[in-house]
Amino acid sequence: MPAPGPRPHAPATTSASGAPGAPGAPPLPLRYLRASPLPHATALASAGVCLTLALAALSHLDDGSHRAAAACAALAAGWLGLACVALLDGFSRFREYRRIKAMLARHGWNRRVFTLVAGSRCQRDAALQAAHEAGHGRRARRFFRALGYRWYHLLPDAVARNPLCFFHPRFLRGSFLPGKAPRARSRQRTRQGPAPERTRGPQRRGGGGFSPEGASGP
After folding, report:
1. 14 - beta bridge partners?
2. Number of C-beta neighbours around residue 12 at 10 A
3. Of 6-10, 51-55, 147-151, 207-211, where does mean pLDDT reach its minimum?
4. Pick from 120, 192, 202: which is nearest to 158 by CA?
5. How many angstroms separate the CA atoms of 128 and 61, rounded?
6. Scanning 51, 83, 118, 210, which has the fewest C-beta atoms within 10 Å of its C-beta?
């Protein structure tokens, strides 16, 4: 019987953007949670507090303490609203993840895409998940780390500088409508032509060990 020949080597896996070694896409529910872990954790915790307060309101109502029941019900409604806002934020981050993944698949690595989302922990998580599936996960992590961002930077940079900007329409539009520019600004940019590219990146947070240019690669 002839000796078996050498086994053929499996071709190296490549992503749609041409990056070698890109992992396969996980199931949709897992991708949804990975693209926005912080909003969904906030929604789960808020829902738990809401349920606890709702049960306390029912207990006070059975005891005849209507004021305490009304107070607990009002607090439960507030936590329920926070859970709904967190779920909407998670859905927006999933949309942003899909948008960044499509841009990476079409154009490959582009540090400007990650510079635009570096100021928010939730946006960084969505960008990292998209980069991981496109084969640029390590490069994206090095890029954000070079800017000084760590796992404990939870608040967006704008909110950390001014907590009142959380209620600003521009901040809310950028959070829940990623990639959508106001119509008036879009028409103005169309008439004026493309804006010149900035040479200065975002303000660097403390703790970076090297420059973003060295982390981003070509």
Report:
1. 20
2. 8
3. 207-211
4. 120
5. 47
6. 210
CB neighbourhood size of 50 (10 A): 19
Range 147-175 burial, b when 16+ CB lie within 10 A, else e: bbbeeebeebebbeeeeeeeeeeebeebb
Bridge partners, residue 20, by sequence: 14
Query: To which residue do tokens 């890109």 refer?
Result: 22
Number of H helices, E strands in the chain: 10, 0
As a whole number of angstroms, the distance between CA 88 and CA 95 comes to: 11
Are 215 and 145 contacting, i.e. CB atoms less than 8 angstroms apart?
yes
Tell me the three state secondary structure of residue 198: coil
Phi, psi of 202 (to 5 degrees): -70, 160
Question: pLDDT per residue over 153-185, tens digit each?
Answer: 988 888 888 877 777 777 677 666 665 544 444
